[in-house]
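Why does residue order matter? Because the sequence determines the fold. Keep that principle in mind as you read this record.
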Amino acid sequence: MGAVETMFFRKSPSAMRCLLPFATLLLLSAIAEGAQKIDLNNENTIATINHSSILIDHLQGLLHNSNSSDITLKVYTGNSDEVKVFHTHHLLLVLQSDVFEDLLLNQSVTTLVLHETAECAVLFEKLLRYFYCGEITILLSQVVPLHKLAAKYHVTALQHGIIEYMSQHLASAFPQGHVVSWYHYSARIGNEDLQERCKRFLAWNMSSVIHSQEWQTISDDLMVALLQRSDLVVENELEIYYAVEEWIKKNQPDVTVTETVLKSIRYAMISPQHLFHIQKQSPIMKEHYSSVHNLLFLTFQFHSTTPLVFAKYFDVNCSLFIPRNYLSSSWGSQWVINNPARDDRSTSFQTQLTPSNSDSSKRVTWNVLFSPRWLPVSFRPSYSSLGHGAVQAYSPEDGRPRIIINPATNSVSFAGVSFQKTVLVRVKQDGRSYVKHVYNFHQSTEETGDFLLQADLQKRSSEYLIDNSLHLHIIIKPIYQSLIKAIK
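Structure:
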């Protein structure tokens, strides 16, 4: 898959002055070939004649016209004798890159010898083409070496454009195995925004990541960072444990990393039956049991009673007792809403009261209402300001989508347990479904303020709709009132 990014030249006034006649001739040539006739009946009429595309065509043609070039670039690949020769122009090089400007300070220089890695050398012509026309066509597999070239030669606009391209195409990059490598690259260059976007995409689509080839390429630091997050979207905690076990077998991290990773598993979210099986069958657990036995002991105590009783004797203010975004039917339900802009919809489902094994038979029924055109409080009429009996008119288009989730039974029966609700919004790109947004709230998405704010559900072409349907997954997270500090 490819995509086009258009950038504009960064102009250097000193360079423009030194070769002004050359640029002027090009401009006059472009205007002569593409000039338009405009009938000016009024002397005050203002018109804009734009022949920039013709000028760009001329500039791009210069790249293939060696007769008018004044600088030769010889690009060597690594330590080999392979060389690529490009006939270029002083003006275009110094306009786009202050590195070339420094290299060409000596006006007598006519040849530059450059050394690039094999992956960068093969794309060097793309960089030059960008110099000449301000546009570049890039493939997912080319973004890192192109960014390296742009960074090396200080082509700032191109650097920013490539980073933005990476940020916007994570879903397309994932099937080809690029997201993890892009994270590692962003970490090396210190781009924290791209790092976080990559981590968030991996976290929100963790169940898919676990079953992909990228899982085995995750670095130690990234694995630790991911397992510390509470927004991982997985079937259940058991899925994470077995995936981590395979990662440890494949990558053989040192003991410190292995134990840190194993301690990051939220064992309290795994049933005692499965924990017994892990202790009996897992070679990784047997080898490193001493590092996590305290967590397992605490977990079995947690499962032996209700969370409210457990909290009277043990500190539960830690991530061990905080649920992630589990897709299991025990903790939520998928909801596909056909024609979501049409009218209000409702549904209901059940979840387990808490992760504690003592509550395994207790269920909570949830009633859910989806409204596509609910009016936010800020848009509602203020009768005191409108005058007696006045009614403020508003259009349905002013409304926003909202979801309200309430228990069907009295909350008194929850015995100290409150609930955080999470709504995952899935979209489709390049034929694959992925989680685009995650919203957390306590009762209504009105609390988030931005629920589906950019989604135009009226349009069948909306990126938020899959086959004209809105694909949601609602997750209920039990939180122990005033006992647990939620993180992330």
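Residues 20-34 form the longest helix (15 residues).
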